[in-house]
Every structure is written in structure tokens, then in C-alpha cells.
Design a protein that fits this description.
Helix content: 25-40%
Oligomer: single chain
Number of strands: 10
Number of domains: 2
GO molecular function: 8-oxo-7,8-dihydroguanine DNA N-glycosylase activity; damaged DNA binding; DNA-(apurinic or apyrimidinic site) endonuclease activity; lyase activity; zinc ion binding
Structural class: alpha+beta
Pfam family, one: zf-FPG_IleRS
CATH topology of the largest domain: Helicase, Ruva Protein, domain 3
Order of helices and strands: HEEEEEEEEHHHHHHEEH
Number of helices: 8
Strand order of the largest sheet: 1-6-7-5
Strand content: 15-25%
Protein name: Endonuclease VIII
InterPro entries: FPG_cat (IPR012319), FPG_N (IPR035937), H2TH_FPG (IPR015886), Ribosomal_uS13-like_H2TH (IPR010979), Znf_DNA_glyclase/AP_lyase (IPR000214), Znf_FPG/IleRS (IPR010663)
Keywords: DNA damage, DNA repair, DNA-binding, Endonuclease, Glycosidase, Hydrolase, Lyase, Metal-binding, Multifunctional enzyme, Nuclease, Zinc, Zinc-finger
Radius of gyration: 20 Å
Length: about 290
């Protein structure tokens, strides 16, 4: 799933490609992906791209005052094409194409989603706050307003909820998903099951530094990369996430996994839990 660093870099890449160019047309190949009806999708035809930004994990293409917003979900992505087919994209259940954005010189973007579970969402709105997921977002880790005091207040308000779930929940902190929450907790040498309200004092400072450091470093590594390079960059630099059975790069212990119905977490027992393997059980509802 694309998370804050990848969406930040994707927005920067697309801004360089799309700024001040006209949208000729948008073909919708997966009708279920479009979540709004007013303004209509065709209202973007003939508009001029003014900006490409990010809200948490939402990508926002602003064109002539209207916002085309996408949430790429677990398996979505955006691919740049120097030349798109002349014929409009058509619905095809076997094709990963969800939408195609054609710009003035017949180049464009393919918005795709792999797999059979379709969660990618497209919105056309006048104000980003009209998208419910954006309206509910917590503070952004890259924002200067995200301070250690803000983090401390969030953790205390979440009570005994496990820190892994709190980091992932977009209403508490925007942009952190399954992968980077694993990485942050590994950097902080903290158990994913640690109760949020118990994180105070030195532990709070350690977690705050791990959030800022992990996300900031990932953003810097991704900055300037093309969209086609971002997934590989992310995977290459992960310490524990997606590395079950491999050696922890810090201590050499084996990276372990806890599985859930639709996701999993990875951690190092030596670095994070005093050498004790975690029980493979369901966590809070925030992980569902």
C-alpha cells in the first residue's frame, strides 16, 4: 500500500509532469471506483492543472479549481504513459485499469488496481474537505504543527489501545500505514502491543524521534524519483516489514510475524520485546 512517503514523492513527480497542462479527458474503466457525482467527472475535461498535492495518503490533482482526489488503497498505483491509446478505455473486469487521465499532448496517467479486492477510490470535489476520509485525518507527521506534545496528547487519548493500531489509524496520525508503523516501532525498539497511554517521558521522545526520522528519511530517499521507481525504493529500505524469516539488520535475530485476517505485522523480538515472541492474536479493531 502506498503510504505518506510514496504519495508525497508521487505528487511531486506528477506535479512536474502535469503543471499548467490541460486535461483532455478522463476515462473511467472501473465505475465502482468513482465515489462522487457532483461535480461530474466530465467537468474536468478541458481544465488546466494548477497543482498536485497530498493529504495523508490521498493524492490531489487540482485543475481549474476542481479537485480530482484519489486514494490508492492497498493495491492501487499511478503509471505515467508517454502515449495513451486513441480509443477511450472501456470497463474490463480482468484489466487492472481503473481510470485513464489524458492530457493535452496525448500523454497521460493510468490509474490501476491489482487483485480482485477493489478498494481504490476516486473523488471529484470542490473542496478536499468534502472527502470524508480527508475530513477525518489526524495531524501530518511532516507538518511543523506535529510536535511531541501533540503526539503525547494523542497517545493519552487513545488509552490502552495498542500502539501499532494507533499509528495506523488515519484519524489519529495521517499517512502512516502498515509498513511504516512496523518500521517506526522497530526504530523505537518498542513492542507493537505496547499500550499507547503508557508511552511517556523518554519513551515518548523515542517514539516521536522514530516517527519523524523514519518518515523523514523515507521522504528524502523518495524525493525526485519517478513513479515507476518508488515501490522498489520502499521495499529496498525496509528493516523489518515484509522481511519475515530474514535477519534483523540491527541485531541479527530473525524477523518474526503476527498474522491477522487481512494483514500482518513484522517485528524483531530482540530489539522490540526483550526477546519474547508476541502471541499471534488479533489486535485492536484499528488494525482491521
Amino acid at each position: 500500500m502506498p503510504e505518506l512517503p510514496e504519495v508525497e514523492a508521487l505528487a511531486l513527480d506528477l506535479k512536474g509532469r502535469l503543471l499548467d497542462r490541460a486535461i483532455t479527458r478522463i476515462d473511467l474503466a472501473a465505475f465502482s471506483a468513482l465515489k462522487t457525482f457532483d461535480p461530474p467527472l466530465h467537468s474536468l475535461h478541458g481544465t488546466l492543472v494548477e497543482d498536485v498535492t497530498r493529504h495523508g495518503k490521498f493524492l490531489d490533482i487540482t485543475a481549474s479549481g476542481t479537485h480530482l482526489i484519489m486514494h490508492l488503497a492497498r493495491a492501487g498505483w499511478v503509471r505515467w504513459r508517454e502515449e495513451v491509446p486513441a480509443l477511450p478505455a472501456r470497463p474490463n473486469s480482468k484489466n487492472p485499469l481503473a481510470a485513464r487521465i489524458v492530457i493535452d499532448d496525448e500523454a497521460g496517467l493510468d490509474v490501476t488496481e491489482a487483485g480482485t479486492k477493489k478498494s481504490l477510490a476516486i473523488y471529484v470535489v470542490r473542496d478536499p474537505q468534502d472527502v470524508p476520509g480527508i475530513a477525518r485525518l489526524g495531524p501530518d507527521p511532516l507538518d511543523d504543527a506535529f510536535t511531541i506534545d501533540v503526539l503525547g496528547a494523542i497517545l493519552q487519548s487513545e488509552g490502552r489501545k495498542q500502539i501499532k493500531g494507533v499509528l495506523r489509524y488515519q484519524g489519529t496520525i495521517a499517512g502512516i500505514g502498515n509498513a511504516y508503523s512496523d518500521e517506526i516501532l522497530h526504530a523505537a525498539r518498542m513492542s507493537p502491543y505496547k499500550p499507547s497511554s503508557s508511552i511517556e517521558g523518554d519513551d515518548l521522545q523515542t517514539l516521536f524521534d522514530a516517527i519523524k526520522g523514519t518518515i523523514g528519511a523515507a521522504v528524502e530517499r523518495s524525493r525526485g524519483l519517478h513513479a515507476s521507481e518508488l515501490k522498489g525504493e520502499k521495499k529496498t529500505n525496509l528493516a523489518v516489514h515484509g522481511r519475515t524469516g530474514q535477519a534483523c539488520p540491527v541485531c541479527g535475530d530473525v524477523v518474526r510475524e503476527v498474522s491477522f485476517a487481512d494483514s500482518s505485522l513484522q517485528y524483531c523480538a530482540t530489539c522490540q520485546t526483550g526477546g519474547k515472541p508476541l502471541a499471534d492474536r488479533r489486535m485492536s479493531k484499528l488494525l482491521k
